[in-house]
Amino acid sequence: MIISANDLRQRLASGERLALIDVRDVAAWREASLPGAYGLNVYDYFVPDSTQEDYAAMAGAFIQAWQQLNIADDATPVFFEQEVGMRSPRGLWFLWFALGRSGLVLDGGINAWMEAGGNLAPGSGTWADVSPVNAPAIPPAMPQLAATRQEVLEADTQTVVLLDARRPTEYAGSFVHGCCARAGRIPGSKLLFWEDVVESGSFKSAEAIARLAAEAGFNPSQRIIAWCHRGARAATVLVALRLAGYHDLAVYVGSWHEWAGHPELPLHSGS
To answer: Mind listing the UniProt keywords for this protein, alphabetically (predicted)?
Structure first.
């Protein structure tokens, strides 16, 4: 699920087939990346509506972009960015969701790679964008990794628990992004700030993440639906919880941007 920079260098040197995938913006990839890395934008696609139909369109958009990269089936994908943030875990989530394939996140990203003695080179291979343009709707391989708005609305807070990965001010409703119609949080949500699962650009240990999750009121027997502003930060927490031994996990991709836009849906605010 994650790989250290030292392990990555050793496995590449041994001749293992690994597909390095830079998920930063195209300009950063072109300037300097891991040698031979593909470029893939997984950050800017968000569903207009969190339904099974729109999730099939999202899966189709990822598969279309993936096919453009022409990555061999026997190559293990390794997603990376400058350091672990909102993008490389989302790339891994996309891979699981759309294709059901296993992959890795480079823990610490490019910073860790350079600290381990790895060199950089301008990106010059294939770059692709997860985009709805001309993308077919394809049922995802692992649909359980994306929760619909209806599932979120029906969550019972006992067996299905909602995880707000946003900053505490967003959770309390004192801050809201300008694109959102309302401030607050989805009722019943518990806060696990996404930045708390990483430290110095790398994931915290599985044990530390498990402690944070337990302190926030979660346990591995529950189904956890993570959400944030538009679904990216939630994927980072999802990968972190997988590292900590949680298995029944999903991202509500529409997240607060979608929920706030439906005035009929309830909200809570305050700490």
So the answer is: Repeat
Question: How is residue 133 written in tokens?
Answer: 């343009």
Give me the domains of the chain, ranges plus CATH numbers: 2-129 (3.40.250.10), 143-261 (3.40.250.10)
Residues 110-162: tens digit of each pLDDT: 999 999 999 999 999 899 999 999 999 999 999 999 999 999 999 998 899 99
pLDDT tens profile 214-268: 999 999 999 999 999 999 999 999 999 999 999 999 999 999 999 999 999 999 9
Cα separation, 7 vs 148, whole angstroms: 37
Query: CB burial class (10 A; 0-12, 13-18, 19+) of residue 28?
Result: middle
Residue 271 pLDDT: 81
| Residue owning tokens 């003695």 | 117
Q: Decide if 50 contacts 97 (C-beta within 8 A).
A: no
d(CA 5, CA 11): 10
